[in-house]
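As a warm-up, study this chain.
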Amino acid sequence: MVIIYRSIRGQEVGDRALVLLAMNINHEIERGLFGWRLSVPEHQAARASEQLQLWEAENRRARPLARHVPAQPGATILVCAWSAILLLCYLAQGRYAFGINWLTIGRADVALMYAGEWWRAATALMLHADIGHVLVNVGFGAVFGGLLARELGGGLAGCLILFGGIAGNLMNAVVQRASHTSIGASTAVFAALGSLSAWLWLGRRLDQTGWARRSAPLVGAIILLAWLGTGDERTDIVAHLTGFIAGFLPGGIIGLRAGSIRTNVGREIALGGVALCVIVAAWALALVAK
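Now compare it with the structure written out below.
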């Protein structure tokens, strides 16, 4: 007997055994220490290999890598709202609009957050150190947020990004020293990346044959997290990680319920309104507390 196929997954070997059975090719399935083996008589090995190659080629043609799903409404609106909010807040911060030091009243200050000013977890997302800082977050947020909105709708994506960023800042405050302060929308950017990767992975949006394709969204997101989430001494690496986790968890839950998710324009408008109301409420609390 000649081994013509090996796999750690019994189902893959079984599928190929059915092909050989249909072609009246004698075969044996064996389970070894490192997985399953499919063997055929030596004089039938060439024919068996040819039939398996034809079957695999046919399956590759029949199954596209990505399952076609129409883009959901609101992606363009989300990207425009994201960009406008961050740029307007940066402009107000730099010009001390209305005579207010927006950085002082809005940054994520761990000591003050422990003292009850929890809204700083939201307001800090809209403050930035310089123009480069804000433009990077606008750009990457538009990419990840736009892709997430095309999958889930602009309103739901906006809520996942905002609440993921807030939860990420709160988680970051738990593990940081009392003297720690931070600003920037990068926590929300990585929440968007986490939600997108979890949705693509658990929502079965990609071809599910083969472990490499199944895990590609997760592996890609982790690589991006490692590449984009680290930097110089000013980079809050922990906040990037907590933002990713805070986005990944709800994205995964929605992914597991992908079959029951229904999107319509009214729902997206309502969810987008919720996100905007949370932003306004956070800044209102910050102004009252100052």
